[in-house]
Amino acid sequence: MNKLRQFLIEWLSDTMWYLLVPLLAQLLPLFLAEKFLGFLSARSWCLRSFAMSALHEAQKHVEINDPERWLRQFKLVRMGEAYDLFYYQIRRGSALKRFPGLTEKPQWPQCVLGLHWGVGLSILKLIHETGGKPRIVMRKVEPGFWKVRPGFYLYMQIMVRFIHRCCYGREIPVPGGIREIKQQNADETLVFLTDVPTVSKRRFNKVSLNQTDLCFDSGGLKIVANMKISCAWYSVGIGESALTRQLQLSDFIQSPEQEVLEAGAAEQVNKLVSLDSAQWQMWPYLSQFVL
After folding, report:
1. Tens digit of pLDDT for each residue in 96-112?
2. Which residues does 76 contact at the CB level (< 8 Å), separation at least 6?
3. How many domains does the chain have?
């Protein structure tokens, strides 16, 4: 009976926060949608279990002076990504309009590397809109996941279809497709998220976060380094308001060695966590990064 109750609670929560709320927000003008999501993020019952687990883990590693503000920001990022997913598909909205700080179209290297920090889904639409061809490395949705969390499974399937369109069907599913990274066309931009847990005790990149050693998978970085292509680090954070976006794109690095990419990943996670730790979405999963 307890398992059934937990299943129903999770199902209703997923359906509300990842489907109903972002869909309802599409009916509102942008400034009202911002107020709507801001109001919900300040409610203690909004994404309560997930956000609290993130806060408790983050407090072990970084100083958080205002936990309530931290929780609001963490939940805004979570709901903001869901909002963006439906915004680009239902409203057919422009990504460029969501980045008021961009005064000109960015130039893209052959590979952009980032973290699960901020509202990163917009990077695909932005590359797509500015004449590039994004090609993201993404984890497969487990076929049986719908039995565990049907609401979130539906949300993920919608996201997979969005990514498929943005990437012209050239996304790279993992596990199983990591070596497809090498099949890179000259006009494509590989999008690679580096903060994923390692599956091998012999192949990992050790990243120190405030005296805690985390193990990031390094297999993809090795392949990227061997390709001898231009790379840059990026992040897409929340801008001055809840539904604006802010792009940070580093200088291009030509044909970096694996060690340079690994050091860059460590530098990037520390930089972004210091900038705004609430925007890093991997806090609830941090135990998976410790071998």
Report:
1. 989 998 988 899 999 99
2. 37, 38, 41, 238, 242
3. 1
